[in-house]
């Protein structure tokens, strides 16, 4: 039984010198982040497939139970829409191979235009993925949240492929008007999706967007505490990613979420202790 928590990135200017030591060479930043959280979203891989040596550095900085949810390149999901993608997928899978067991799931984030009529394409794509990798799909077409037939169709394909459906919960964020520049920017960019809280596999993945006010973020995740605790009691091992518009306090919030779930499930193992920002002294 394990709950992993993490953020959308492992380095952020607002964390430097406050949560993470500063300055840090590039090959040490992930290791220090991994003292706070034991999972991370691999968003950068959406824009370009990383060099294999770069990925090997990520592996060296993390334990084998650290989780990367690595997003497939946009050329696969958005430009070619899962069709004729054998070559970029081979390159991507070769690049992330050094992660080994740390590669928790291949994150198939699909554009909002990818709707129910495209599900057969998704089914063919998932069938061709190597069995050595789990996959998790994030959809944004509104029919997948409002049309019961579309929901059943997608769930059937994902279940057959042993793939998870990643919900991106933005309901707390959009509940009230934005109050900061970062929130106003996110207001125009983040998807407004209805809440979904159904796990299809033993390793559910949740993305949660709160507010820049930590108290509002905590208030908005209350439902996820009970859902996550319930999954753990069922023997599942969920991964929860905590976002805020500015992400200034995201690592501390992720740890707080873990602590609050652990209060409900006392057998849950604690997170690692963060690496001190400054060396400890005797005096």
TrEMBL record:
SUPFAM superfamilies xref list: TM1631-like
Gene3D superfamilies in alphabetical order: Protein of unknown function UPF0759
Signal peptide residues on this chain, from the entry's feature table: none
Superkingdom of origin: Bacteria
Pfam families: DUF72 (PF01904)
InterPro entries: DUF72, UPF0759_sf
UniProt-recorded name of the protein: DUF72 domain-containing protein
Organism of origin: Micromonospora zingiberis
């Amino acid at each position: 039984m394990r709950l992993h928590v993490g953020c959308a990135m492992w380095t952020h200017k607002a964390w430097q010198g406050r949560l993470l030591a500063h300055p840090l060479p590039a090959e040490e930043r992930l290791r220090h982040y991994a003292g706070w959280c034991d999972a991370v979203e691999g968003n950068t891989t959406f824009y370009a497939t990383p060099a294999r040596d770069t990925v090997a550095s990520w592996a060296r900085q993390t334990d084998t139970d650290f989780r990367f949810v690595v997003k497939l390149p946009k050329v696969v999901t958005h430009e070619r829409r899962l069709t004729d993608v054998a070559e970029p997928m081979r390159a991507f899978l070769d690049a992330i191979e050094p992660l080994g067991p740390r590669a928790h799931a291949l994150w198939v984030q699909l554009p909002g235009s990818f709707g129910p009529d495209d599900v057969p394409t998704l089914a063919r794509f998932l069938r061709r993925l190597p069995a050595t990798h789990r996959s998790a799909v994030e959809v944004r077409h509104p029919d997948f949240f409002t049309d019961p037939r579309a929901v059943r169709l997608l769930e059937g394909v994902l279940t057959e492929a042993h793939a998870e459906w990643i919900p991106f919960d933005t309901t707390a964020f959009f509940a009230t008007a934005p109050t900061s520049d970062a929130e106003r920017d996110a207001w125009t960019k983040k998807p407004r999706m209805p809440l979904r809280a159904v796990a299809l596999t033993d390793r559910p993945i949740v993305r949660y967007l709160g507010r820049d006010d930590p108290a509002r973020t905590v208030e908005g995740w209350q439902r996820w505490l009970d859902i996550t605790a319930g999954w753990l009691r069922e023997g599942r091992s969920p991964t929860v990613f905590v976002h805020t518009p500015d992400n200034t306090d995201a690592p501390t919030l992720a740890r707080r979420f873990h602590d609050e779930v652990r209060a409900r499930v006392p057998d849950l193992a604690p997170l690692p202790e963060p690496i001190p920002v400054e060396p400890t002294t005797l005096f």
